[in-house]
Specification:
alpha+beta; 37% strand; 26% helix; single chain; Conserved Hypothetical Protein Mth637, Chain: A; 2 helices; six-stranded mixed beta sheet; globular
């Protein structure tokens, strides 16, 4: 689910660590982030933020993980970007 509130967007994502290649997949409003980092000592969370930052062209400081620090299902917050812009950028990246 992707929601826009108070100038920020929150999105539920699914993380797949230890993937062969880093990628972001968008299916409707379902976001899957594949990363090569292992889920150890926060490396996967750092890799998720870095991957999303690079794809969307926004600073890492504008992306935070609200829930799910130790889970594959996470809720992220992205500041300075609207819901439509988020979907458009992720859609371009997932092709």
């Amino acid at each position: 689910m992707i929601a826009e509130k108070n100038g920020a967007v929150t999105a539920d994502i699914r993380v797949v660590p230890r993937s062969k290649h880093a990628a972001v997949e968008l299916d409707g409003e379902r976001i899957t982030v594949r990363i090569t980092a292992p889920p150890v000592d926060g490396k996967a969370n750092d890799a998720v933020v870095a991957e999303l930052s690079g794809i969307m062209g926004i600073p890492k400081r504008d992306i935070s993980i609200l829930r799910g620090q130790t889970s594959r299902s996470k809720t992220i917050e992205i500041r300075g970007l609207g819901k439509d812009a988020l979907i458009a950028r992720l859609g371009q990246a997932s092709r």
